[in-house]
Specification:
Largest sheet of chain B: 5 strands, mixed, barrel
CATH superfamily of chain A: Thiolase/Chalcone synthase
Number of strands of chain B: 8
Helix content of chain B: under 10%
Strand content of chain A: 15-25%
Number of domains of chain A: 1
Oligomer: heterodimer
Order of helices and strands of chain A: EHEHHEHEHHHHEEEHEHEHHHEE
Number of strands of chain A: 11
Structural class of chain B: mainly beta
Distance between the termini of chain B: 34 Å
Largest interface: A-B, 35 and 34 residues
Order of helices and strands of chain B: HEEEEEEEE
CATH topology of chain A: Peroxisomal Thiolase, Chain A, domain 1
Chain lengths: 390, 128
Protein backbone atom coordinates (compact mmCIF):
# COMPACT_ATOMS: atom_id res chain seq x y z
CA UNK A 1 0.00 0.00 0.00
CA UNK A 2 1.39 3.38 -0.93
CA UNK A 3 -0.43 6.63 -1.23
CA UNK A 4 -1.25 10.02 0.15
CA UNK A 5 -0.84 10.67 3.85
CA UNK A 6 -4.07 10.80 5.82
CA UNK A 7 -4.63 13.17 8.72
CA UNK A 8 -5.41 12.17 12.29
CA UNK A 9 -8.17 14.68 12.98
CA UNK A 10 -8.92 13.44 16.48
CA UNK A 11 -8.29 10.64 18.97
CA UNK A 12 -9.91 9.35 22.12
CA UNK A 13 -9.82 6.44 24.51
CA UNK A 14 -11.33 5.35 27.78
CA UNK A 15 -9.16 4.77 30.77
CA UNK A 16 -7.93 1.20 30.46
CA UNK A 17 -8.38 -1.08 33.45
CA UNK A 18 -11.01 -2.95 35.36
CA UNK A 19 -14.55 -1.74 34.78
CA UNK A 20 -16.27 -5.10 34.47
CA UNK A 21 -19.83 -3.73 34.54
CA UNK A 22 -19.28 -1.48 31.53
CA UNK A 23 -20.36 -3.08 28.26
CA UNK A 24 -18.29 -3.03 25.08
CA UNK A 25 -20.76 -0.64 23.48
CA UNK A 26 -20.65 1.76 26.42
CA UNK A 27 -16.86 1.81 26.28
CA UNK A 28 -16.84 2.56 22.55
CA UNK A 29 -19.50 5.26 22.96
CA UNK A 30 -17.10 7.12 25.26
CA UNK A 31 -13.99 6.64 23.11
CA UNK A 32 -15.73 7.61 19.85
CA UNK A 33 -17.34 10.69 21.45
CA UNK A 34 -13.94 11.85 22.68
CA UNK A 35 -12.37 11.29 19.24
CA UNK A 36 -15.13 13.17 17.41
CA UNK A 37 -14.95 16.05 19.91
CA UNK A 38 -11.16 16.14 19.59
CA UNK A 39 -11.53 16.25 15.80
CA UNK A 40 -14.28 18.82 15.66
CA UNK A 41 -16.10 16.54 13.23
CA UNK A 42 -19.80 15.71 13.47
CA UNK A 43 -21.28 12.21 13.42
CA UNK A 44 -22.96 13.09 10.09
CA UNK A 45 -19.57 13.52 8.42
CA UNK A 46 -18.42 9.97 9.18
CA UNK A 47 -18.65 7.85 6.03
CA UNK A 48 -17.45 4.48 7.33
CA UNK A 49 -16.62 2.73 10.59
CA UNK A 50 -13.96 0.05 11.03
CA UNK A 51 -14.27 -1.44 14.51
CA UNK A 52 -11.85 -3.85 16.17
CA UNK A 53 -13.06 -6.50 18.59
CA UNK A 54 -11.77 -9.99 19.31
CA UNK A 55 -13.64 -11.80 22.08
CA UNK A 56 -17.14 -10.33 22.01
CA UNK A 57 -18.72 -13.77 21.63
CA UNK A 58 -16.90 -15.06 24.72
CA UNK A 59 -17.38 -11.99 26.91
CA UNK A 60 -20.83 -10.74 25.91
CA UNK A 61 -22.26 -13.40 23.56
CA UNK A 62 -22.30 -10.58 21.04
CA UNK A 63 -21.41 -11.09 17.40
CA UNK A 64 -22.24 -8.69 14.55
CA UNK A 65 -20.50 -5.87 16.34
CA UNK A 66 -20.19 -3.43 13.41
CA UNK A 67 -23.73 -2.07 13.72
CA UNK A 68 -23.52 -2.28 17.51
CA UNK A 69 -20.47 0.00 17.51
CA UNK A 70 -21.96 2.35 14.92
CA UNK A 71 -25.07 2.84 17.05
CA UNK A 72 -22.92 3.41 20.13
CA UNK A 73 -21.00 6.11 18.24
CA UNK A 74 -24.22 7.61 16.92
CA UNK A 75 -23.52 7.09 13.23
CA UNK A 76 -25.51 5.45 10.45
CA UNK A 77 -22.58 4.98 8.06
CA UNK A 78 -21.60 1.49 6.87
CA UNK A 79 -19.77 -0.37 9.62
CA UNK A 80 -17.68 -3.51 9.82
CA UNK A 81 -16.04 -5.42 12.65
CA UNK A 82 -12.38 -6.28 12.16
CA UNK A 83 -10.94 -9.32 13.96
CA UNK A 84 -7.22 -9.93 13.87
CA UNK A 85 -6.97 -10.98 17.53
CA UNK A 86 -4.90 -8.45 19.50
CA UNK A 87 -4.16 -6.55 16.25
CA UNK A 88 -7.87 -6.00 15.53
CA UNK A 89 -7.97 -2.24 15.87
CA UNK A 90 -4.54 -1.72 14.30
CA UNK A 91 -5.91 -3.52 11.27
CA UNK A 92 -9.11 -1.44 11.52
CA UNK A 93 -6.94 1.70 11.30
CA UNK A 94 -5.24 0.35 8.19
CA UNK A 95 -8.62 -0.48 6.62
CA UNK A 96 -9.75 3.09 7.20
CA UNK A 97 -6.58 4.46 5.61
CA UNK A 98 -7.17 2.24 2.58
CA UNK A 99 -10.66 3.70 2.07
CA UNK A 100 -9.41 7.28 2.36
CA UNK A 101 -6.55 6.68 -0.04
CA UNK A 102 -8.81 5.00 -2.54
CA UNK A 103 -10.85 8.19 -2.61
CA UNK A 104 -13.94 6.32 -1.43
CA UNK A 105 -14.31 8.38 1.72
CA UNK A 106 -13.05 11.62 3.27
CA UNK A 107 -13.85 10.82 6.90
CA UNK A 108 -13.64 7.44 8.64
CA UNK A 109 -14.01 6.44 12.26
CA UNK A 110 -11.65 3.66 13.38
CA UNK A 111 -10.93 2.01 16.71
CA UNK A 112 -12.06 -0.86 18.86
CA UNK A 113 -13.44 -2.02 22.16
CA UNK A 114 -12.96 -5.01 24.43
CA UNK A 115 -14.60 -6.09 27.65
CA UNK A 116 -12.58 -8.78 29.41
CA UNK A 117 -12.64 -8.46 33.19
CA UNK A 118 -16.22 -9.72 33.49
CA UNK A 119 -14.70 -13.14 32.66
CA UNK A 120 -12.83 -15.27 35.21
CA UNK A 121 -9.06 -15.58 34.65
CA UNK A 122 -9.55 -19.13 33.34
CA UNK A 123 -12.28 -18.06 30.92
CA UNK A 124 -10.29 -15.04 29.73
CA UNK A 125 -7.31 -17.35 29.23
CA UNK A 126 -9.51 -19.61 27.10
CA UNK A 127 -10.87 -16.69 25.07
CA UNK A 128 -7.36 -15.34 24.42
CA UNK A 129 -6.12 -18.82 23.47
CA UNK A 130 -8.57 -18.75 20.56
CA UNK A 131 -6.05 -16.47 18.83
CA UNK A 132 -3.72 -19.48 18.58
CA UNK A 133 -4.33 -22.59 16.45
CA UNK A 134 -7.43 -24.10 18.10
CA UNK A 135 -6.68 -27.62 16.83
CA UNK A 136 -2.94 -28.01 17.04
CA UNK A 137 -1.94 -25.64 19.86
CA UNK A 138 -4.89 -25.06 22.21
CA UNK A 139 -5.73 -28.78 22.39
CA UNK A 140 -2.13 -29.37 23.50
CA UNK A 141 -2.68 -26.97 26.41
CA UNK A 142 -1.09 -23.85 24.93
CA UNK A 143 -2.10 -20.53 26.49
CA UNK A 144 -0.89 -17.12 25.32
CA UNK A 145 1.64 -16.67 28.10
CA UNK A 146 2.69 -20.25 27.28
CA UNK A 147 3.14 -19.56 23.57
CA UNK A 148 5.26 -16.45 24.19
CA UNK A 149 7.21 -18.40 26.83
CA UNK A 150 8.09 -20.94 24.14
CA UNK A 151 9.44 -18.03 22.09
CA UNK A 152 11.34 -16.60 25.07
CA UNK A 153 13.00 -19.90 25.99
CA UNK A 154 14.00 -20.53 22.36
CA UNK A 155 15.37 -16.95 22.21
CA UNK A 156 17.46 -17.44 25.38
CA UNK A 157 18.86 -20.69 23.96
CA UNK A 158 19.72 -19.14 20.61
CA UNK A 159 20.84 -15.65 21.56
CA UNK A 160 21.38 -15.60 25.32
CA UNK A 161 19.73 -13.23 27.77
CA UNK A 162 17.72 -14.03 30.86
CA UNK A 163 14.67 -13.20 32.96
CA UNK A 164 16.37 -10.17 34.41
CA UNK A 165 16.80 -8.64 30.96
CA UNK A 166 13.08 -9.10 30.40
CA UNK A 167 12.27 -7.71 33.83
CA UNK A 168 13.79 -4.37 32.78
CA UNK A 169 11.19 -4.13 29.98
CA UNK A 170 8.37 -4.41 32.54
CA UNK A 171 10.06 -1.95 34.94
CA UNK A 172 10.53 0.59 32.12
CA UNK A 173 6.94 0.39 30.90
CA UNK A 174 5.50 0.65 34.41
CA UNK A 175 7.67 3.72 35.05
CA UNK A 176 6.34 5.35 31.87
CA UNK A 177 2.72 4.83 32.99
CA UNK A 178 3.00 6.36 36.45
CA UNK A 179 1.62 9.76 35.35
CA UNK A 180 -0.63 8.47 32.56
CA UNK A 181 -4.18 8.71 33.89
CA UNK A 182 -5.49 6.49 31.12
CA UNK A 183 -3.23 3.62 32.24
CA UNK A 184 -4.40 0.60 34.21
CA UNK A 185 -1.31 0.52 36.44
CA UNK A 186 0.07 3.90 37.52
CA UNK A 187 2.52 2.13 39.77
CA UNK A 188 6.29 1.85 39.55
CA UNK A 189 7.80 -1.62 40.07
CA UNK A 190 11.38 -2.82 40.38
CA UNK A 191 13.29 -5.79 39.01
CA UNK A 192 12.84 -7.71 42.27
CA UNK A 193 9.05 -7.36 41.99
CA UNK A 194 9.13 -8.88 38.51
CA UNK A 195 11.48 -11.74 39.41
CA UNK A 196 9.58 -12.55 42.60
CA UNK A 197 6.07 -12.65 41.09
CA UNK A 198 4.18 -15.95 40.83
CA UNK A 199 4.90 -17.96 37.67
CA UNK A 200 2.26 -17.94 34.92
CA UNK A 201 4.22 -19.97 32.36
CA UNK A 202 7.98 -20.37 32.81
CA UNK A 203 9.97 -18.13 32.44
CA UNK A 204 7.16 -15.56 32.80
CA UNK A 205 5.91 -14.33 36.12
CA UNK A 206 2.81 -12.20 36.49
CA UNK A 207 4.72 -8.98 35.74
CA UNK A 208 6.03 -10.30 32.42
CA UNK A 209 2.42 -10.41 31.19
CA UNK A 210 0.11 -7.59 30.17
CA UNK A 211 -3.05 -7.53 32.28
CA UNK A 212 -6.64 -8.46 31.46
CA UNK A 213 -8.33 -5.12 30.77
CA UNK A 214 -11.48 -3.36 29.66
CA UNK A 215 -11.30 -0.37 27.36
CA UNK A 216 -11.95 1.26 24.02
CA UNK A 217 -10.10 3.51 21.59
CA UNK A 218 -11.08 5.59 18.57
CA UNK A 219 -9.61 7.90 15.96
CA UNK A 220 -11.12 10.09 13.28
CA UNK A 221 -9.03 9.91 10.12
CA UNK A 222 -9.62 12.33 7.26
CA UNK A 223 -8.26 13.08 3.79
CA UNK A 224 -5.87 16.02 3.45
CA UNK A 225 -8.47 17.78 1.30
CA UNK A 226 -11.15 17.46 3.98
CA UNK A 227 -8.78 18.74 6.66
CA UNK A 228 -7.92 21.76 4.55
CA UNK A 229 -11.48 22.50 3.47
CA UNK A 230 -12.78 22.39 7.03
CA UNK A 231 -9.77 24.11 8.52
CA UNK A 232 -9.20 21.23 10.95
CA UNK A 233 -6.41 21.36 13.47
CA UNK A 234 -4.86 18.08 12.30
CA UNK A 235 -1.12 18.42 12.43
CA UNK A 236 -0.35 14.71 12.61
CA UNK A 237 -0.43 12.52 9.50
CA UNK A 238 -0.21 8.78 9.06
CA UNK A 239 2.35 8.58 6.28
CA UNK A 240 3.02 4.85 6.26
CA UNK A 241 0.99 1.70 6.80
CA UNK A 242 1.94 -1.94 6.44
CA UNK A 243 0.54 -5.33 7.39
CA UNK A 244 1.89 -8.86 7.42
CA UNK A 245 0.47 -12.33 8.06
CA UNK A 246 2.10 -15.62 8.95
CA UNK A 247 1.20 -19.20 9.81
CA UNK A 248 -1.34 -19.32 12.66
CA UNK A 249 0.56 -21.92 14.71
CA UNK A 250 3.96 -21.03 16.12
CA UNK A 251 5.33 -24.48 15.25
CA UNK A 252 4.55 -23.91 11.55
CA UNK A 253 6.74 -20.78 11.35
CA UNK A 254 10.25 -20.75 9.97
CA UNK A 255 11.61 -19.74 13.39
CA UNK A 256 10.43 -19.52 17.00
CA UNK A 257 12.62 -16.50 17.68
CA UNK A 258 11.69 -13.90 15.13
CA UNK A 259 8.50 -12.49 13.66
CA UNK A 260 8.53 -12.23 9.85
CA UNK A 261 4.96 -10.86 9.68
CA UNK A 262 6.12 -7.80 11.63
CA UNK A 263 9.26 -7.51 9.47
CA UNK A 264 7.09 -7.42 6.35
CA UNK A 265 4.62 -4.96 7.88
CA UNK A 266 7.49 -2.68 8.91
CA UNK A 267 9.18 -2.77 5.52
CA UNK A 268 5.90 -1.89 3.83
CA UNK A 269 5.26 0.97 6.25
CA UNK A 270 8.80 2.35 5.91
CA UNK A 271 8.64 2.20 2.11
CA UNK A 272 5.22 3.82 2.18
CA UNK A 273 6.45 6.70 4.34
CA UNK A 274 9.80 6.94 2.55
CA UNK A 275 11.74 6.53 5.78
CA UNK A 276 13.86 3.90 7.53
CA UNK A 277 14.17 2.73 11.13
CA UNK A 278 16.89 5.33 11.84
CA UNK A 279 14.36 8.12 11.21
CA UNK A 280 12.01 7.00 13.99
CA UNK A 281 12.13 9.17 17.13
CA UNK A 282 9.66 7.32 19.35
CA UNK A 283 7.78 3.98 19.18
CA UNK A 284 4.77 2.25 20.71
CA UNK A 285 5.22 -1.52 20.31
CA UNK A 286 3.07 -4.53 21.18
CA UNK A 287 4.53 -5.67 24.53
CA UNK A 288 1.81 -8.19 25.44
CA UNK A 289 4.66 -10.06 27.15
CA UNK A 290 8.13 -8.74 27.94
CA UNK A 291 9.77 -10.88 25.23
CA UNK A 292 7.30 -9.44 22.69
CA UNK A 293 8.87 -5.99 23.00
CA UNK A 294 12.30 -7.51 22.32
CA UNK A 295 11.06 -9.37 19.23
CA UNK A 296 9.27 -6.22 18.01
CA UNK A 297 12.39 -4.04 18.26
CA UNK A 298 14.29 -6.56 16.16
CA UNK A 299 11.51 -7.00 13.56
CA UNK A 300 11.22 -3.22 13.17
CA UNK A 301 14.92 -2.97 12.30
CA UNK A 302 15.93 -0.97 15.39
CA UNK A 303 18.18 -3.86 16.45
CA UNK A 304 19.76 -6.85 14.74
CA UNK A 305 18.52 -10.35 15.51
CA UNK A 306 19.42 -11.35 19.06
CA UNK A 307 20.46 -7.82 20.04
CA UNK A 308 17.38 -6.16 21.55
CA UNK A 309 17.27 -8.28 24.71
CA UNK A 310 19.38 -5.79 26.68
CA UNK A 311 17.90 -2.58 25.19
CA UNK A 312 15.77 -1.70 28.23
CA UNK A 313 18.42 -2.83 30.71
CA UNK A 314 21.00 -0.59 29.00
CA UNK A 315 18.64 2.40 29.08
CA UNK A 316 18.46 2.66 25.29
CA UNK A 317 14.64 2.45 25.20
CA UNK A 318 13.82 4.18 28.48
CA UNK A 319 12.22 7.63 28.59
CA UNK A 320 15.61 9.34 28.37
CA UNK A 321 17.15 6.78 25.99
CA UNK A 322 17.99 7.17 22.30
CA UNK A 323 14.70 5.57 21.25
CA UNK A 324 11.99 5.83 23.91
CA UNK A 325 9.67 2.83 23.57
CA UNK A 326 6.17 2.60 25.04
CA UNK A 327 6.01 6.02 26.69
CA UNK A 328 2.29 5.32 27.23
CA UNK A 329 3.22 2.42 29.50
CA UNK A 330 2.70 -0.05 26.68
CA UNK A 331 0.28 -2.95 26.91
CA UNK A 332 2.15 -3.99 30.03
CA UNK A 333 1.16 -1.04 32.21
CA UNK A 334 -1.39 0.92 30.18
CA UNK A 335 -3.43 -2.28 29.85
CA UNK A 336 -4.47 -4.54 26.98
CA UNK A 337 -8.17 -4.66 26.14
CA UNK A 338 -7.16 -6.64 23.08
CA UNK A 339 -9.52 -5.26 20.42
CA UNK A 340 -8.81 -1.67 21.48
CA UNK A 341 -5.02 -1.83 21.71
CA UNK A 342 -3.99 -0.88 18.15
CA UNK A 343 -6.27 2.15 18.18
CA UNK A 344 -4.94 3.16 21.58
CA UNK A 345 -1.40 3.11 20.19
CA UNK A 346 -2.51 5.59 17.49
CA UNK A 347 -4.26 7.71 20.14
CA UNK A 348 -1.25 7.81 22.48
CA UNK A 349 1.29 8.37 19.68
CA UNK A 350 -0.77 11.21 18.22
CA UNK A 351 -0.80 12.93 21.60
CA UNK A 352 2.91 12.29 22.15
CA UNK A 353 3.73 13.97 18.82
CA UNK A 354 1.14 16.75 19.24
CA UNK A 355 2.54 17.68 22.61
CA UNK A 356 -0.54 17.02 24.74
CA UNK A 357 0.51 13.66 26.25
CA UNK A 358 1.74 13.59 29.83
CA UNK A 359 5.09 12.26 28.51
CA UNK A 360 5.36 14.58 25.49
CA UNK A 361 8.07 16.66 27.14
CA UNK A 362 10.41 13.68 26.94
CA UNK A 363 10.18 13.71 23.14
CA UNK A 364 9.78 17.42 22.50
CA UNK A 365 11.68 17.39 19.22
CA UNK A 366 10.19 14.15 17.92
CA UNK A 367 8.67 14.34 14.44
CA UNK A 368 8.37 10.65 13.51
CA UNK A 369 6.58 8.00 15.57
CA UNK A 370 5.93 4.34 14.87
CA UNK A 371 3.26 1.96 16.16
CA UNK A 372 3.50 -1.86 16.04
CA UNK A 373 0.42 -3.96 16.82
CA UNK A 374 0.49 -7.78 16.74
CA UNK A 375 -2.13 -10.52 16.75
CA UNK A 376 -1.61 -14.02 18.13
CA UNK A 377 2.05 -14.99 18.30
CA UNK A 378 2.50 -12.40 15.52
CA UNK A 379 0.50 -14.31 12.90
CA UNK A 380 -0.84 -10.80 12.22
CA UNK A 381 1.14 -7.59 12.44
CA UNK A 382 0.37 -4.03 11.47
CA UNK A 383 2.75 -1.06 11.55
CA UNK A 384 1.96 2.62 11.15
CA UNK A 385 4.25 5.63 10.74
CA UNK A 386 2.98 8.94 12.14
CA UNK A 387 4.61 12.27 11.37
CA UNK A 388 4.28 15.86 12.49
CA UNK A 389 3.32 17.76 9.34
CA UNK A 390 2.20 21.12 10.69
CA UNK B 1 -16.80 -27.07 26.08
CA UNK B 2 -16.07 -30.73 25.39
CA UNK B 3 -15.75 -31.46 21.70
CA UNK B 4 -18.45 -33.77 20.43
CA UNK B 5 -17.53 -33.89 16.76
CA UNK B 6 -14.69 -35.27 14.66
CA UNK B 7 -12.28 -33.04 12.77
CA UNK B 8 -11.11 -34.47 9.46
CA UNK B 9 -7.34 -34.55 9.30
CA UNK B 10 -6.79 -33.92 13.00
CA UNK B 11 -8.66 -36.94 14.38
CA UNK B 12 -7.47 -39.21 11.54
CA UNK B 13 -3.91 -38.26 12.44
CA UNK B 14 -4.45 -39.00 16.15
CA UNK B 15 -5.95 -42.39 15.20
CA UNK B 16 -2.81 -43.12 13.18
CA UNK B 17 -0.51 -42.15 16.07
CA UNK B 18 -2.49 -44.43 18.41
CA UNK B 19 -2.15 -47.24 15.87
CA UNK B 20 1.61 -46.70 15.82
CA UNK B 21 1.66 -45.30 12.29
CA UNK B 22 2.25 -41.56 12.63
CA UNK B 23 2.75 -39.58 9.45
CA UNK B 24 3.10 -36.06 8.16
CA UNK B 25 2.36 -34.34 4.87
CA UNK B 26 5.37 -33.62 2.67
CA UNK B 27 5.48 -31.37 -0.38
CA UNK B 28 7.78 -32.03 -3.37
CA UNK B 29 10.13 -29.36 -1.96
CA UNK B 30 10.45 -31.38 1.24
CA UNK B 31 8.49 -29.11 3.59
CA UNK B 32 6.57 -30.97 6.29
CA UNK B 33 3.09 -30.11 7.63
CA UNK B 34 0.39 -31.50 9.91
CA UNK B 35 -3.00 -32.30 8.33
CA UNK B 36 -5.31 -31.12 7.02
CA UNK B 37 -3.41 -29.26 4.30
CA UNK B 38 -4.25 -29.01 0.63
CA UNK B 39 -1.35 -26.77 -0.30
CA UNK B 40 2.19 -26.05 0.92
CA UNK B 41 1.82 -22.38 1.90
CA UNK B 42 5.53 -21.73 1.40
CA UNK B 43 5.81 -23.08 -2.16
CA UNK B 44 2.25 -23.29 -3.47
CA UNK B 45 2.71 -26.99 -4.26
CA UNK B 46 -0.48 -29.03 -4.04
CA UNK B 47 1.01 -32.50 -4.38
CA UNK B 48 1.25 -33.30 -0.65
CA UNK B 49 2.01 -36.89 0.28
CA UNK B 50 1.59 -38.78 3.53
CA UNK B 51 5.08 -39.77 4.67
CA UNK B 52 6.04 -41.86 7.73
CA UNK B 53 7.01 -39.66 10.70
CA UNK B 54 10.59 -40.14 11.92
CA UNK B 55 10.69 -42.06 15.25
CA UNK B 56 12.93 -39.52 16.93
CA UNK B 57 12.11 -35.87 17.46
CA UNK B 58 13.99 -33.06 19.16
CA UNK B 59 12.73 -30.49 21.69
CA UNK B 60 13.00 -26.96 20.24
CA UNK B 61 11.46 -25.14 23.19
CA UNK B 62 9.34 -25.81 26.27
CA UNK B 63 7.46 -24.06 29.07
CA UNK B 64 5.76 -25.10 32.30
CA UNK B 65 2.21 -23.75 32.25
CA UNK B 66 0.79 -22.89 35.68
CA UNK B 67 -2.31 -20.93 34.64
CA UNK B 68 -4.28 -23.14 32.25
CA UNK B 69 -7.45 -22.91 30.19
CA UNK B 70 -10.55 -24.58 31.71
CA UNK B 71 -10.10 -27.73 29.62
CA UNK B 72 -6.75 -28.32 31.39
CA UNK B 73 -7.72 -27.06 34.87
CA UNK B 74 -6.99 -30.39 36.59
CA UNK B 75 -3.93 -31.10 34.41
CA UNK B 76 -1.99 -27.96 35.44
CA UNK B 77 0.83 -27.51 35.94
CA UNK B 78 2.15 -29.27 32.85
CA UNK B 79 5.01 -28.80 30.42
CA UNK B 80 4.24 -27.89 26.80
CA UNK B 81 6.93 -28.30 24.17
CA UNK B 82 7.50 -27.70 20.48
CA UNK B 83 9.40 -30.61 18.91
CA UNK B 84 10.67 -31.17 15.38
CA UNK B 85 10.47 -34.56 13.69
CA UNK B 86 12.49 -34.17 10.50
CA UNK B 87 10.86 -31.39 8.48
CA UNK B 88 7.68 -31.09 10.58
CA UNK B 89 7.21 -29.40 13.95
CA UNK B 90 4.38 -29.93 16.42
CA UNK B 91 3.22 -28.89 19.88
CA UNK B 92 2.55 -31.40 22.65
CA UNK B 93 2.90 -32.06 26.38
CA UNK B 94 6.07 -33.51 27.86
CA UNK B 95 5.64 -36.66 29.93
CA UNK B 96 7.80 -38.96 32.05
CA UNK B 97 10.52 -36.41 32.74
CA UNK B 98 11.23 -33.92 35.50
CA UNK B 99 11.15 -30.35 34.20
CA UNK B 100 14.60 -29.69 35.65
CA UNK B 101 16.00 -32.42 33.41
CA UNK B 102 14.46 -31.09 30.19
CA UNK B 103 16.80 -29.42 27.73
CA UNK B 104 16.33 -27.90 24.32
CA UNK B 105 17.72 -30.45 21.85
CA UNK B 106 16.56 -33.41 23.97
CA UNK B 107 15.42 -36.41 21.86
CA UNK B 108 11.78 -37.43 22.26
CA UNK B 109 9.20 -39.78 20.79
CA UNK B 110 5.53 -39.16 20.14
CA UNK B 111 2.46 -40.57 21.87
CA UNK B 112 -1.19 -39.94 22.71
CA UNK B 113 -2.62 -39.76 26.22
CA UNK B 114 -5.89 -38.53 27.69
CA UNK B 115 -6.31 -35.36 29.73
CA UNK B 116 -7.22 -35.46 33.43
CA UNK B 117 -9.81 -32.72 33.15
CA UNK B 118 -12.01 -33.86 30.26
CA UNK B 119 -10.63 -37.22 29.20
CA UNK B 120 -9.73 -35.83 25.76
CA UNK B 121 -6.85 -36.98 23.57
CA UNK B 122 -3.66 -34.96 23.86
CA UNK B 123 -0.40 -35.26 21.94
CA UNK B 124 2.54 -36.09 24.21
CA UNK B 125 6.31 -36.35 23.90
CA UNK B 126 8.37 -38.79 25.99
CA UNK B 127 12.15 -38.91 26.38
CA UNK B 128 13.76 -41.30 23.92
Amino acid sequence: MTGEPVRVAGVGMTKFGKSSDRTGRELFAEASRKALEDAGVSTDDVEELFFGNFMGEFAELQGHQGPMAAAAAGITAPSVRVDSACASSGVAVRQGITRLRAGDADVVLVGGSERMTNLSTADATEALAAAADAMWEVRAGVTFPGAYSLMANAYFEQHGGDREDLAHVAVKNHANAVDNELAQFQKAIDVEDVLGAPTVASPFGLYDCSPISDGASAAVLVSEAFAEEHDLDAGIAITGAGQGSDELALHDRTSLTHTPAAERAAQQAYDDAGIGPDDVDVAEVHDCFTIAEVLALEALGFYGEGEAISAARNGETTIDGDLPVNLSGGLKAKGHPVGATGGAQISEMTKLLRGDHVNSDAVEDATVGLTHNAGGTVASAVVHVLEVVE
Amino acid sequence: MTREFRDNGYDDWFDAVEEGEPYYLESPSGNGWLPPREIDPETGERELEEVELPDAGEIESFTRIEVATPQFADDAPFVVAVASFGPVRMTGQLRDVDEDDVEIGMPVEIGVERTETRDERVLVFRPR
